[in-house]
Structures are given as structure tokens and as C-alpha cells.
């Protein structure tokens, strides 16, 4: 009797920064562990990152949304609003792309991280998101309208996975992932996702790890501010990861400072374990990573990215992170505030997603 054919899973993360791509790494790893064949639909930058994590992984090109921010909070909100028609066009284009892909490939199921066009009535399609309660920055009425529109699109999928705790002492994404009303399709809270391994007890940590990320020009604006402070010569034992996996050039050397364009999972895992303090954007993936590593974090919300602004405020009130605005960010102030802050880092189970994925694969038609 011939062996059972491997299920073919199409996985596609949103390209809005690299956070969505990074949090799909443990999902892809688990699918491969379960004997699935995985094809990743992504753009060229995402492919560069994932090729460094997996050998032999298959890729197909799918254009991203290519979102850019403004140079300040107001400009970013306006820019995002003006980009909505283009985003809707992109969603329609990816739906058409997906239907063509299905014509040529026998896909068993789809896992889409915030890509609204990757669904078809004929196969199981999972939508992954932690944002079921949108913060538009335009008030509660606008938030409800946006939520209604997104829920209408989400219900085209067969299921929704939320990378957060369903209940407990603290829900990491707060009201973002816990709306008063859920989508009408089955919703599962799969626990937090992180590609990293927990630090061993001997890793008490020293020094500072700074991780930059996110769309331009805000990534570069923050980098310029940080580099100017590092050049003062008063800091040492600092590692700066620029978040530029496609770049082959680096800023001028700064004594005592290690600057890298990108670090793969294993190297970054070591850096995080060796650090006393992590400074990063208030991206959800970065926060989940910091929680798994049980590290003190100072987060800098991207101006105008209302999701990050909410997360930073919510987690600061829960004593999980220190939050400092970009315009008020100084490294010495970050060190001082972190040293005097009463962190309460919850030790949460970061393996729940494995059971969810295993049950999902077992439920697929043979």
C-alpha cells in the first residue's frame, strides 16, 4: 500500500515589517516536524530571512503591501488612511493570485498571517491575527466600522488563530485580541509565538541589545537618533541590530559598539540571552520574544502606528515593559528607567500552538 501523501501547506505572512514573518517561523518549523510540505508565499526580503532559517524550504513570490510611514505621527496616520484604497487593491490581487496558484498546485490547506485574500471555499484556510479590535486612531466609531469590514473578510476563512492567551492573569495584546464580539468563524487562542529558545539560568545578562525594525522612514529616523547617541563614546557593551537583511553596507565603526544589519535566530537568541536590557520597537512579535526570554524591555512605539502605541501603553500599565516615546528617547534615560522599574514578567506557556497545529493537520482530508 502506498504511503500517505504529505499534506501541502501554503503559508503566507504579511510584509508589514518583519514581525509577521518572524512569528511564522515556529509555525513553519512545527509543520515540517509533522511531516508537511510547506510552500511560503512572500516577497524577496521575507524570502532572504526565511532562507537563513530553513534549508530546502520552497518559496513562491507574492508581492507585499509595501507600506511606508510618514515622518511624524500625524503624517503616518494620514499616509495609512490614503493607502487604504491601494491596500484593498492588493487584497484583491492576492485573491486572484491565489486562485491561479490553486489551479496549478494541489494545496491541502492555507495559513495566512494577516493576508486577507488567501482563502478559497474548497480548502481549509486559517487566518492568523492578534488584531480583532482595531485601533485606527480616529475614535471608537471609526474603530467599529473598520472592525466590521475586517470581520466580513475574516469570515471567508474556515478558522482564525489568535497568538495570545485566551484568559489568565494577563492577556498580552489586551483588548486588541479580546474584542467584545468575535468573528463568526471558529476562533482559537493558540498562545504566544516565538522562534527563540528560553535562556538557561546562567544567562543573567549584561549590556544592551537594540533591535530596530518596521517600515521606513521611521526605522531610519530612530536609527539616526540612536547612532548619534552611541557616537558620544559613553556607551559600551552595546549590540545594534539594524533590521536590514537585504543590506550589505554598515555605518561607520563606533568603538565598543557591535553593529549588524541582521542576525539569524540562533545568533539573535544568544544576543538576547546575553543582554541585561533589550530596546526595540513595540511590535507584538518583539514583545512576545522578550516575554519568552524573560528579559527586561524598553519599547519605543512607532509614531502613528496606533497598534504599537496601544500595546506599549497596555504593557507598561501591566509592568511588563517600559515605554518611551521616540521623540523623548535617550539611551541613558532608558537605562535609568529600566533599572528603577518594577517589572512583573509573567512566565507563560509558549508551546500551546503546537497542539493546535497538530490537531489541525490531523483534521485535514487525506
What does this entry look like structurally?
With 366 residues, the chain is an alpha/beta fold. It folds into 2 domains: 8-193 and 350-363, Glycogen Phosphorylase B (Rossmann fold), CATH 3.40.50; 208-340, Rossmann fold, CATH 3.40.50. The chain contains 12 helices and 13 strands. The protein has helices at 19-23, 25-33, 44-51, 73-82, 84-104, 140-154, 218-230, 265-274, 284-293, 306-317, 331-340, 352-363; strands spanning 8-13, 37-42, 58-61, 109-113, 125-128, 159-162, 187-189, 208-211, 238-241, 257-260, 277-281, 296-300, 322-323. A 7-stranded parallel β-sheet has the order 3-2-1-4-5-6-7. The chain has a 6-stranded parallel β-sheet with strand order 10-9-8-11-12-13, sandwiched between helices. Strand 12, helix 10 and strand 13 form a beta-alpha-beta unit. It starts with 7 loop residues before the first strand and ends with a helix. The mean pLDDT is 91.
Give me a quick take on this structure.
This protein is of the alpha/beta class. 37% of the residues lie in helices and 15% in strands.
Structural domains: how many: 2
CATH superfamily of the largest domain: Glycogen Phosphorylase B
Mind telling me which CATH architecture of the largest domain this is?
3-Layer(aba) Sandwich
In the sheet with the most strands, the strands line up as 3-2-1-4-5-6-7
Portion of residues in beta strands equals 15-25%
**End-to-end Cα distance:** 14 Å
Number of helices: 12
Looking at the structure, what is the overall shape?
globular
Q: Give the CATH class of the largest domain.
A: Alpha Beta
Using the coordinates shown, work out and report the CATH topology of the largest domain: Rossmann fold
Query: Average pLDDT, to the nearest integer?
Result: 91
* Helix percentage range: 25-40%
* Helix-strand string: EHHEHEHHEEHEEEHEEHEHEHEHH
- How many DSSP E strands? 13
What low-confidence regions span 5 or more consecutive residues with pLDDT below 50? Answer: none
Give the radius of gyration: 20 Å
Q: Please summarize the sheet with the most strands.
A: 7 strands, parallel
Given helix and strand content, the structural type is alpha/beta
